[in-house]
């Protein structure tokens, strides 16, 4: 494998893989139409039980695997977890370097993530936008917080059973109530 | 998947997945003879370029995936990375809880790891020993350091190309020279 | 003692013991009407000189002890300090496990704290609300910041001399001015 | 209290309150013959399950309280926990400043601790040595590790039941076996 | 040098040396009119790529040196970097103590910084305000974000070429866009 | 300056600038014979009061400046401080990138430091050895510990007064006594 096949990483889901939305699914399919292999980096791996990252890394890995198995893509996608730098983002590209399997090019549509990669001389490309508004993790969590069951239509294939088992809706609702 | 299938984690490779030896391969096969799925936790995820953990987490994930693909086990084994607690090991079971997909029982033959799991009320079992002496990561690194090519016979299936690409032997040799 | 007496912890004052209000005093008395012993966990132990936690852990311990001595409860209440997890709240229950003397049940009225305890399988109960609005630490600090001396009527028994010695009003006023 | 009474801290048990020995008991009694109040700082609060600090902070607090209650000294001794600086010991005096109730003088017989206090302009005095060899925490842990029950004669008053409840001997024995 | 000359530190630029403004230049000249030597502490050394601290420590040191050389003051000003305490500001004076060359008095006009120095018994004085509004780093970064080239008139002597080399305007603009 | 002059960093003193020896002086002179400017990175900036790094970063900066002024090189040498990675050395090159002014090539004779630079694609060269045995910081500290005054002949030009002012010999002697 390592000799004859190109390796491609993508960071598009960085800071967003707290809830795996249909948008993530479409990006992954689009990338696998261009590359033979893919590395998905789960960002903010040092966060859990926050409004933006309500799920632990372990739970996020479970969601990702559940989707990949349903889509029969488990043998084409590698995954890993990258923590935030807690304010010293000039270090972030080195975190990615150390935590991820090797890759040749990163994909992201987030300007800040792109800036961090560029500072570390990592090649960065864009992905198309797949109706980002509707399919975003943020939208899903907002619906969960208000008890609007329509969030179930927005998550990626295969993720629903994982969210059910960990009582995701209940957790997100309670986290959103938290007054800081 | 999450409803009809039991989930089983194992921690046996904790503090040991710096170089994937044949012993790891045998343990994984033995566990998959008893459980339908497996979580492999890569321990000491906060270490790299040390004599005991010469490889980054990303490199260790690459080795593991390379082996799993060769053995056609990639769809049965989940993986994740767990950092050390830097001296506060009473927290370790919570690190595992947060970083790993859910599991029902942990496997380890290391007495210290067992103690840490027990403190967190995690069920722990032993695995058989598979000629540990010969197949250990420690032995492999010692041979690498002295330039004895027989280490190539001790690594797990599929790992060799990854070690070649990152110049593993050269790195280990130089790390071992370091006087602290 | 450890054999014949039940041990009971309570976490109600978590994230709130920055200034010990009359509300804390009432909760402690109420809990001691139900349990023989009590563990008070001083939360956010890693914070000081912030608008929400203007006092050091040492100063907060002094306030607590001063109150307990005045109320003649010093032999019934144990105390300890628990730091925040800095965004990885799934670890918090393990911080409490390691930093506190053993306990059988936790008390809190804070939904987020309850969520964190539940994730760690810790039994949690509620306490009654004792006119929380008027007696809260937040209210006390707001009055301090504006120079309204009526805050002196809201702190718990015995705490005033400690606050005087460390020039608490002056510190809180200056911290509140800080533009972030 | 804070007006009419002097406050005295002592740091003698720093890096040593992993197991409360008879020597600690004698030092505390000696100090209370000279001062009306005492602050006991539990050092290395960031360590647990290590050969040198096998017990969590919570467990160490339980031991201390158990002794103080047996000796009827609970109203004269305050306690707090101070973490290590992990290599930047020039910061240690500030850790003590923030984590401990206020004090006028520190006591220690450890030259390194004295050096750290002096760098922070903290007044430091010595205590007498009370047969240190026999009564040290190190000696107790060594006996525990070999299963020699005579360690029971060396711990401070009231500590034995706490050590029994947490299976201290078993834990220390297993920790000492750990090959690093 | 160390015997016959007084040493003077100043902390006025703490949390502000993200972009060296003309105000910083005037303060440094004013201080060198009163003291023979000066220590400039670059604050928030643990931050980079944030809206408030867009530049790395290395880049900030380059700006400072570039200014000092232009002004022919390089032999009179020492510099060092001090990280933030991440919420435990009671420790900050010890960070300054350890990271900076020795000094006799600190200068700051920031009330919070003054509070932190006072807690550590460090002597603090004010500096005059030099048209702070117009010359502040905050103002410079706001102009950069909107593409208003007039920021070039507000930076200190000699800093412009450094900002040009690292594409400062582009970076600040992109950082300001970041939605958190 | 930044346009017309090359910038050159050197990392040779990494992990070694705890006591500035004559060897450091010679290396710096040799490098300035080849490059117009130099960045000296003070390594292990997170350590102090250890046998290997007995001095704070501030004290080490004072020594370096004192030497540079005596040698009339203060306008040609920039300095900065780089902390250790605490076991995750794959990140180290990014620490250097963020903490140091920009440079084109690094110099070191330490194999481990070279390995870390290579992993980050930093160009590394060697320096000549200048009688390393006799002039090393380690040798100086060993002599200090035994009270052998001949260490005074081994330190770099101008450093002696700084070491005298901070009672370096006394500190090193006491640190070496520390039993760990």
The poorly predicted ranges of chain A are: 1-16
Give the radius of gyration of chain A: 16 Å
- Please name the two chains that share the biggest interface, counting residues whose Cβ lies under 8 Å from a Cβ on the partner chain: A-B, 29 and 29 residues
Order of helices and strands of chain A: EHEHEHEHEHHHH
Give a written overview of the molecule.
- 6 copies of one chain form a homohexamer.
- In chain A, helix 1 (22-32) links the parallel strand 1 (9-10) and strand 2 (38-42).
- The termini of chain A are far apart.
- The longest helix of chain A is centred in the middle third of the chain and has 14 residues, at 57-70.
- The radius of gyration of chain A is 16 Å and the shape is globular.
- The first copy, chain A, is built from 8 helices and 5 strands.
- In chain A, helix 6 crosses helix 8.
- With 180 residues, chain A is mainly alpha-helical.
- Chains in contact: A-B, A-C, A-E, A-F, B-C, B-D, B-F, C-D, C-E, D-E, D-F, E-F.
- The interface between A and B is medium-sized, with 29 and 29 residues.
